[in-house]
């Protein structure tokens, strides 16, 4: 338990907008970190009040529709006092096990960043199977920035969602999982994925495969090369529900695989519609 006697020398950055249902639970588990900063996009609920109650730094952010979005804006403009930065969403909750492993890893490492693992919750239950969620969300300050995509307001998403941090050196991995506890309901899930789908279509159309695409991960390359094909949504469902054993998660596992399959069908249909219009 020695690791818990010292603050972890990491700045945690949490981008938010109207996260009163999630932010308190997230902040309550971050007492072991040296610095926590909440970056807000004009919340109209009680998000700021909750942040103030936790004594955490609060920064207002207003996006002008151009580069940079919220996470890169912080990386470019904020004066970090720690060597490491961890980006969390308001609905992500760390555990003592995660903090213990992270503290040990940072004490003796030459890597520039770490992949993080997550446990998704859907319909109020943890998903133990299906496609695993991983993100490169922890890295040394100055060693990585999120992909620069000059999107000219493809959507109102003012935060990097599918953009990936570009790290030039090999990353490590923290195996202890972070809980992804989004309890805002199916309606919000659908609304959010409609916005994501519109963004994905524009992103797909912007990729020039004749130029350097080494900054894309293998998963991104596979997705964007095949996302417009008729079989891709069915491939995702079969892979997630059967190959990755999502079927063992019961009804929530089926529902999650179903909605993600619907999401990829929506992307394909939007792509087909755009071709007709052009």
The helicity comes to 25-40%
Instruction: Indicate the CATH architecture of the largest domain.
Output: Alpha-Beta Complex
Number of domains: 2
Number of strands: 11
**Count of DSSP helices?**
8
Uncertain spans: none
Tell me about the biggest sheet?
Answer: 9 strands, mixed
Query: Shape from CA axes?
Result: globular
CATH homologous superfamily of the largest domain - what is it?
Answer: Spore Coat Polysaccharide Biosynthesis Protein SpsA, Chain A
Strand content: 15-25%
Helix-strand topology string: EHEHEHEEHEEEEEEHHHH
Helix and strand content put the structural class at alpha/beta
CATH C-level label of the largest domain: Alpha Beta
Q: Briefly note the CATH topology name of the largest domain.
A: Spore Coat Polysaccharide Biosynthesis Protein SpsA, Chain A
- Average the pLDDT over all residues and give the rounded result: 93
Radius of gyration: 19 Å
């Amino acid at each position: 338990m020695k690791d818990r006697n010292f603050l972890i020398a990491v700045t945690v950055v949490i981008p938010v907008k109207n996260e009163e249902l999630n932010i308190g639970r997230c902040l309550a588990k971050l007492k072991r970190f040296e610095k926590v900063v909440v970056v807000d996009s004009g919340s109209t609920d009680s998000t700021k009040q909750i942040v103030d109650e936790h004594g955490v730094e609060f920064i207002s952010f207003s996006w002008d529709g151009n580069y940079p979005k919220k996470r890169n804006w912080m990386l470019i403009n904020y004066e970090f006092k720690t060597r490491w930065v961890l980006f969390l969403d308001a609905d992500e909750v760390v555990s003592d096990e995660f903090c213990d492993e992270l503290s040990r890893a940072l004490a003796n490492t030459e890597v520039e960043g770490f992949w993080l693992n997550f446990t998704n919750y859907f319909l109020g239950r943890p998903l133990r199977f299906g496609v695993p969620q991983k993100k490169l969300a922890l890295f040394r300050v100055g060693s990585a920035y999120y992909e620069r995509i000059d999107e000219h307001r493809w959507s109102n998403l003012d935060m990097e969602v599918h953009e990936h941090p570009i790290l030039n050196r090999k990353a490590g991995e923290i195996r202890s999982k972070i809980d992804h506890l989004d309890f805002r309901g199916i309606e919000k899930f659908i609304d959010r994925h409609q916005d994501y789908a519109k963004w994905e279509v524009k992103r797909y159309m912007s990729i020039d495969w004749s130029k350097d695409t080494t900054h894309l991960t293998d998963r991104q390359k596979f997705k964007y090369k095949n996302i417009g094909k008729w079989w891709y949504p069915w491939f995702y469902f079969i892979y997630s529900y059967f190959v990755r054993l999502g079927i063992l998660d019961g009804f929530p596992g089926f529902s999650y695989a179903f909605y993600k399959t619907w999401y990829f069908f929506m992307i394909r249909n939007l792509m087909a519609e755009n071709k007709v219009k052009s």
